[in-house]
Design goal:
The structure is a single chain. This protein is an alpha/beta fold. It is built from four helices and three strands; from the N terminus they run E-H-E-H-E-H-H. It has helices at about 25-40, 55-65, 75-80, 80-95, and strands at about 20, 45-50, 70-75. It has a three-stranded parallel sheet with strand order 2-1-3, sandwiched between helices. It is globular.
Length: about 100
């Protein structure tokens, strides 16, 4: 089974087809399980799990830009984080699903 969206025309090449964004303190385990389940169901998908501590805003924006879709594990802590809001606003500005 092919990963839906691998042929999605975004106007730019997407390195990470799916980007899972979360608040590290509250959702790391759940998002790790989610990534594993997605790989089980869609083994050809490329998934970037936001587990690295990216300090630079341009790194965060570049990761979101490279994704063809963003999946956000939304918590109160995520909404209250500057990095979370940067990911969301970048995805919104780029009209990422």
């Amino acid at each position: 089974m092919k990963c839906p969206g691998n042929t999605l025309k975004t106007g730019r090449s997407a390195t990470h087809r799916r980007y899972i964004s979360h608040n590290w303190k509250r959702a790391q385990d759940q998002c790790g399980v989610l990534k594993s389940l997605l790989y089980t169901m869609l083994p050809t998908c490329k998934i970037y799990l936001d587990e690295d501590d990216m300090d630079q805003d341009d790194e965060v924006m570049a990761q979101v830009e490279q994704a063809s879709a963003l999946l956000v594990f939304l918590t109160a802590e995520y909404v209250g984080s500057r990095k979370g809001m940067l990911e969301l606003t970048t995805a919104w500005r780029l009209r990422k699903p």
